[in-house]
Write a structure and sequence with these properties.
The structure holds 2 protein chains of 2 kinds. Chain A is an alpha/beta fold. Chain A contains 21 helices and 13 strands. The longest helix of chain A is centred in the middle third of the chain and has 25 residues. Chain B is globular. The chains are: A alpha/beta, B mainly alpha. At the A-B interface, helix 15 and helix 17 of A face helix 4 of B.
Chain lengths: 511, 108
Amino acid sequence: MNSVVKAAAYTLVYAPDMIIHNGSTQTTERIVNPSSEYLTKIPAHLRSFEDNVAYAPNQTYIGNMTPDELAKIEMPWYNKKVEGANRFGKFGEIMPQDEFLILLQICDVFDLVKLEKNFVERTRPNFEKHPLMGEDIISKIKPGVEIAEIENFVNNEHSEGLYHNHELVGYVKRAHDVDPSLTAHIIHENLVSKATSVLSLLHLVKNSGLEKSEIDYVIDCSEEACGDMNQRGGGNFGKAAAEIAGLTHATGCDIRGFCAAPTHALINAASLVKAGTFKNVIVTAGGSTAKLGMNGKDHIKKDMPVLEDNLGGFAVLVSANDGVSPEINTDIVGRHLVGTGSSPQAVTSSLVSEPLERAGLKITDVCKFSVEMQNPDVTKPAGAGNVPEANYKMIGALAVKMGAIEKTELAAFPEKHGMVGWAPVQGHIPSGVPYVGFAREDILAGKVKKAMIIGKGSLFLGRMTNLFDGVSFIMQPNSGAIASNAGVSEEEIKTMIAKAMKDFAKSLLAE
Amino acid sequence: MDLENQKRVKDFADNYGAENLVVIIGAAEGEAAGLAAETVTAGDPTFAGPLTGVQLGLKVYHVCEEEVKSEVNEELYEEQIGMMEMVLDIDDIAKEMKAMRDEFCKYL
């Protein structure tokens, strides 16, 4: 029996100071051109938290708006505000930077993160009000240190500074004096990934209605690597995040594959559950500091705010079939093979038409395709075009080639079978997975019959292969098998009849 | 153009002679294709890579231009490129490419 998507969570963290201090475009610029005009201009181009929350793509990501509602707003979106926007949504939340720094400290179990004591005092009351932060988490907040200590560690001890409103409020210590895999930079990057994953896990557990103790396995599919110089990518972000989130009955592992990793991980999770190995498997990923402000130069050149000011996170719960939730159909899995080739046509065929044909289906049998759902508000001004739209055009052209639609229908294909992009440009975060939460709702509401989730990854970046990569799967309505058949066994029927006869006998005696 | 690719193009030109090279571009938009063509003919317009100030003047075409298409087996071309041909604005791409070749190519 197919496993199901039981719940999904999507979270964002507003991190404007991390753009300046941790985004790779900015850190590279600081090395190559320390007196750069670009760097001096950034502070004037940062959005406020309120503007970040009122940004329509962000409201869509956390579930307060649907992709259809977003599509009705004319682009560009950055200069329009959503009325009555809320920090919290049905899928998750947008956490402000100061609260996130507290969460970062909580996620550090090696005493590597220190925050300034006044900052902790100021921020702690807000953090304590957070609906999902229980005593187990709040009790991990440390009192904080003097600013002199922070300045000393940042200036003299190779520590990474933590900033809020352009003010130094803490540091991340290096975890070893000479090990290049445990520098303060890497520890910071990894702890941010872990903390954003933890935030998503907490929302997911709430959204699922399950007890934390019911989660069996957690798969992390982010793009970071943790380990020391002897095992640089040793890993297990999955288990580390599960520990902080209080999932005491879970173990876990990491799956990597660049932007294709979330879809690889969901297929793995669905198979583990379908095989009966585990009942409840979470796929989770945290965000990436390196990608903050990646297109900042172009945004500032066009006098826009630096739009990549959010860390992204998500978590999806894959569970044993409950007779209701949408299924992951592991019989229709697309995959880019070693021998597939890297032309866009070969890639799209292997992920879209080949698995559908194998199942006797046409491209038009899929209502919605979830591709690389990057927010075009971010990518278009940077010359990278509208990524989801380009993907839909390719799938549409393939449909023409396969004879599923006429060439005259090609122009309407993206709108009919696609969506506008709303996800932050954080590599793995926008890849296929942003629609899983909405797909669950659309399928439950009967609006969508089949959705295809596609993940693609650029493996060449790791310099181990020039091969492209990608996988895809189908989400579909629950076949309702449990409700109709498997729900009542012969044994149970016998018990029910026996009980009814006993009750009848009792009523006779009473008379 | 990616800095690593600029380095490779420059190495090829040094090793095999600029007159013996043809660069095939696969960019999805006219502007991006034109920038890549400019880089291997007039030099890196962003002044960031190894081709900054290096005017190689190489022959350069987009894979969807007629000059390349007519050189390739029809069936193979249809199989590998046919879908993208439908998606891309080939007239715009060809216009950008031709403008760069006409102005900067040394080997036509």
